[in-house]
Design a protein that fits this description.
mainly alpha; 3 strands
């Protein structure tokens, strides 16, 4: 004999699970802010993906105040968590061959290769701050039901960085970093949007 579970119980369990999953993922990425590590970031990403799958498969929405709490948690996770995730992805993509500058950019030789120890310049400065703002804009846009914010952010970032993309290292870092950052923000934004609307 099947027992029908009341809708209120399902909504409560869903709300509690999402709250705990987002809190745990936020703690894991904050632990990895200083030095990104694979295991905490992989667990945080898995929690986010599992939360998204559950929200997609569940026909229930999280109620008012809990929805606001989840939106704030999701926003913090998207903005802060994107930094260690993107840095780890960039390290894996470049195999540690790109030197970091002191202003958040990368060091490249005058001719564009990082092995040239002659005149070195720092390009793509301020990437960390731009990444925070990029993820903030994308996540807020998705939560508010304005997915076009993704196109606006990508266009602004591309126009602003166009002159610095003359070296292969800069192009690779720009493309890989932007895609990793946007993917992280979009998954979390979708999770929150689908859970509250």
């Amino acid at each position: 004999m099947l027992v029908a579970i009341p809708d209120a119980v399902v909504v409560a369990v869903l709300s509690i699970f999402l709250f705990l999953a987002l809190c745990a993922a936020l703690v894991l990425v904050v632990v990895s802010l200083r030095r990104p590590r694979n295991v905490p970031l992989a667990i945080a990403a898995a929690l986010v993906v599992v939360g998204l799958v559950i929200v997609v498969m569940t026909p229930y929405n999280v109620p008012g105040i809990m929805g606001m709490i989840l939106a704030l948690l999701g926003l913090a996770l998207a903005v802060l968590g994107g930094d260690p995730v993107v840095r780890r992805v960039l390290d894996m993509a470049t195999h540690g061959t790109v030197q970091q500058g002191i202003a958040g950019g990368i060091l490249v030789g005058e001719r564009g290769d990082s092995e040239d120890q002659g005149a070195v310049q720092e390009i793509l400065r301020g990437g960390t701050t731009i990444g925070y703002l990029e993820r903030l804009g994308v996540t807020l846009g998705l939560i508010a039901g304005f997915p076009e914010a993704i196109a606006v952010v990508v266009a602004l970032k591309g126009i602003g960085r166009f002159s610095e993309l003359s070296t292969p290292a800069a192009r690779e870092r720009f493309i890989v970093g932007t895609l990793a950052s946007l993917l992280w923000a979009c998954v979390i934004g979708a999770l929150v949007r689908l859970s509250i609307w």
